[in-house]
Each structure stands twice: as C-alpha cells, then as structure tokens.
Specification:
Blueprint lengths: L3 E5 L14 H12 L9 H10 L5 E7 L3 E2 L2 E2 L3 E10 L5 E4 L14 E5 L1 H4 L3 E2 L21 E2 L2 H5 L7 E10 L2 E9 L6 E7 L6 H19 L6 E7 L3 H9 L7 E7 L8 E4 L7 H13 L3 E4 L8 H4 L8 E5 L21 H20 L2 E4 L13 H4 L9 H11 L1 E5 H8 L3 H12 L4 E4 L3
Parallel strand pairs: 8-9, 12-13, 12-14, 14-17, 15-16
Antiparallel strand pairs: 1-2, 2-11, 3-4, 5-6, 5-10, 7-10, 11-13, 15-17, 18-19, 18-20
C-alpha cells in the first residue's frame, strides 16, 4: 500500500488573529485555537490540527498505513477517542475527558466497566507533589488504559464506592499522518524545520513550536530565499523515523536543520548542538547568541530529547540542532496541565521568532569568496572603498571589515568563519563583501 499524499490549500484564517496583531499575538491566537484538540501520534486530532495550520500556510499531508515497516519500527495502529470519564455512584463525572484532554492515558484501549477503587487505582496517575496538576502519560506501544488525575481528585475517591469507568476509544488499522510545507528557494539546498505535533493540550510543548513554525513560514514566503525551506510537522520519534525512511535519498539536500520546541515560556534561550557539533547551524546560533547579549545556554548534543536524535543518528548525522527556551524536563510545568495558556506568552514567542529569524539571516547571507588579487594588500582608495561603507562599525573602522574579508577570502572561509575569527560584526563583513564584489577584487565561490 502506497503512502497517500493530499494537498491542503491555504485559506483565510478564521477566528485566529486580527489584522493588527503583532507576530507574538498572532501566534498566541493560533495556540488558543489548537489548545482544546486531543492529539496523539496518530488519529483525527492530528488531522484536525493540520487542517487549521493549512488555513495559514500551504500543507501537503502524507498518510502512512499502520503496519508499514520504518527501519526498526512499525507504524502503529491509529488511535481515536470520543469520550472518557469516571462516574461515581450518583452518576456524577468525577473525572471528565471533556474537561481536559490530559485526563486520559494517551492511546488507552477502550473500556466500560464498573469497579471499586482498589481495582481502578493501578490505572490512575497523579502528581502528589503538585496536587492540582494533571500529568501527561502515554502508552503508545503497550495496550493499556488509564486516567491522569489531579492528586486532589484521587484523594477524593472512596474505597467503598462503585465507579463507572468508560473510555470510548478505538485502536485499529489506519495510518500515521504528517504534514509538510515546502517553500522553494533559488537552490535545492534545504533548511529543515522539524516540529512534533503529537501532544494534546500542552502549550509550550509543543503548540508553541507549531505556532512559531507557521509564523516563520509566513515570513519566509514573503522574502527572497536562497535556500528551500521545509517545515515538517510530525508525531514525535515515530514520525521522524517514518519521514526519514520515506525520504532517505532526499536528506542529502539538507544543509541546515532545526527542531522547534518549548519556545513560548519565560525561560532563557537555549540551543542544543547537532551531533556534528560544528555544523554551520551550530556555529550561526552560537555566534548570534554570543553577540546578541541575551541570557542563553548552549548544550552539547546528547542522544535523548526530541527528534534531533533521529536526524543526528549515525546513519544520517544531519546538521540538525534544537532551538528552545526552557529545556525539556527542566521546568516543573513540563508534561502537566500547568503547561497551559497562562504559561506561554506573546512576548516570548515573538522573541523566539526574532532569534530564529536572525540566524536564518546569517545562513542566507553566509558566502565564501575568493580574493582575486591575493598578493599583497590591494589599493582600496583608488577603488573608492575607503568611503563606500561610511561610519564606524562596532568601534572598528569599516576598512577593517574590508581587510578581514580580503585576507580570509581564500575560498575556504565563509563570512561566518571570518566573523568568528575577527570579532567584526557579521553585518559589517557582509556589507564589505558586497562592496568588494562590485570591484575586481573579490568573487563569490559557488557551491555549498
């Protein structure tokens, strides 16, 4: 059975953002719209989410059938849920899926029975140290059922009462759905953005990543692009493995990659390096964060976290890092109901947008050049270059940027490499290279 691909044409957003909204406000509006949907690694909740994203950016959906082999994994059965509850003997819902999607163990098999608390208790999950929060738990690859409850709810249940337990779900052959937005550029070289879309009502992890990806795709669609940009919305782990198995030959085109997650909270910016550690995306992010003056952290690659570990597996070793604010598992709200609409903010989403956009600007502008008169220092004055750039740049004369570009333009050093070594701002070196390229002194070197 072949994978099915269905294009979703973009449409005007409805009930999402107002024309005067800032990018951060527009992202928050999209998060609010997506928040109530119960998502998982498969199912209609994922498709509903993609339909909404498709109102903002052009998406193509792929359906990979259950049972398909994807490297060492198998695409699972599709899971859908309509309702779930625990009722006490009076018929009152003491736990109600309609009140919060986290209340059900994700991928629970269907059940409808009446039982006492001692039988029900092994299927209840709570956080004793956070008694008002609901945990997020899953059972993707082991048939099980359960409810995630606040510890206050659990404490209110009685040993001598009969409880009606219902999970109205289906787990049956279907398909795994992922979505792609591809923005062609001047070259086939790609920048890959990977965003996991499988979590239910969790805002930072990862509605924020989806909203940021939409904002970036919209912004890039209005700009001239050197690279082709691919935005991949996938279920975590099994989604990236599935995509890689279906697109292995295509991965040779990926020049830079970024996983987006946890981008809307108030924590400081973090960047996790790719497995390579010195890929251009790693160096560009470190350079940007170091020169921006913001509080930040840089994390060396380790084989756990999000889908970077699939792209960076030794069989691919792709240049894919992770942009996030608070690191996964390092904030109390992680994988709980406290990761809600109050935890993410428009200002932090917009700040994340600015950081990622600044790094893309560096990657788009980064070039390698060849000094056409490398023997000795050429006369800049007779070519009018001492005044072409004007003013001071970062406490250095514009001539210093010219000299650094000329000296290191040996066909090997890119502008980013020159900026890292010289301490001259990237923008000044870019301006110097553009000025020199208009003379007989410098030529761009083609190729990656």
């Amino acid at each position: 059975m072949n994978d099915a691909r269905t294009p979703i044409p973009p449409a005007d957003p409805t009930g999402t953002a107002s024309p005067g909204d800032t990018p951060g406000e527009a992202m928050m509006a999209l998060i609010r719209r997506l928040y109530p949907i119960c998502r998982s690694i498969t199912g209609d909740g994922v498709r509903q989410t993609f339909r909404i994203l498709g109102e903002h950016i052009p998406l193509t959906l792929s359906e990979v059938p259950s049972g398909a082999d994807v490297y060492d994994w198998t695409v699972p059965r599709e899971w859908n849920i309509r309702d779930a509850y625990i009722k006490d003997s009076s018929g009152r819902r003491v736990v109600d899926f309609r009140q919060h999607t986290l209340h059900v163990l994700n991928y629970s098999v269907p059940i409808q029975r009446t039982m006492r608390l001692d039988e029900l208790r092994p299927h209840l999950f709570s956080l004793p140290d956070r008694p008002q929060w609901i945990p997020y738990r899953t059972s993707y690859y082991n048939d099980n059922w359960g409810f995630c409850v606040t510890h206050e709810q659990l404490s209110g249940l009685r040993d001598d009462e009969d409880y009606e337990v219902c999970i109205d779900s289906t787990l049956a052959p279907g398909s795994l759905t992922y979505a792609e937005c591809v923005l062609p550029g001047q070259t086939d070289d790609e920048v890959l953005f990977s965003i996991h879309s499988c979590h239910p009502s969790l805002c930072n992890d990862n509605l924020s990543g989806m909203a940021l990806a939409v904002a970036l795709a919209q912004d890039l669609s209005r700009r001239e692009r050197r690279f082709t940009y691919r935005f991949l919305f996938i279920p975590g782990t099994i989604g990236s493995i599935t995509w890689l198995s279906r697109n292995e030959a295509h991965t040779a085109k990926i020049r830079h990659g970024l996983v987006l997650t946890n981008v809307g909270d108030a924590g400081p910016v973090h960047y996790k390096k790719s497995r390579r550690g010195d890929a251009a995306i790693d160096r560009a992010f470190q350079y940007h964060l170091r020169t921006s003056g913001v509080e930040h952290g840089v994390i060396d690659f380790f084989p756990f976290g999000y889908d970077e570990r699939q792209y960076c597996s030794p069989g691919f070793n792709l240049p894919v890092g992770v942009y996030m604010r608070s690191q996964h598992g390092a904030f109390p709200e992680y994988h709980t109901s406290a990761d809600n609409l109050d935890f993410v903010h428009a200002e932090h989403l917009e700040d994340s947008f600015r950081h990622v956009r600044a790094v893309l600007d560096i990657l788009e502008a980064d070039r390698r050049y060849l000094n056409l008169k490398p023997k000795g220092e050429p006369r800049l004055g007779k070519r009018g270059l001492y005044t072409a750039l004007g003013g001071k740049t970062g406490g250095q004369s514009p001539e210093m940027a010219l000299l650094w570009v000329l000296n290191l333009s040996d066909g090997q050093h890119s502008l980013l490499a020159i900026a890292e070594r010289s301490g001259v701002p990237f923008s000044a070196l870019q301006a110097a290279a553009e000025a020199l390229s208009k003379t007989d002194l410098l030529a761009e070197v083609e190729g990656p």
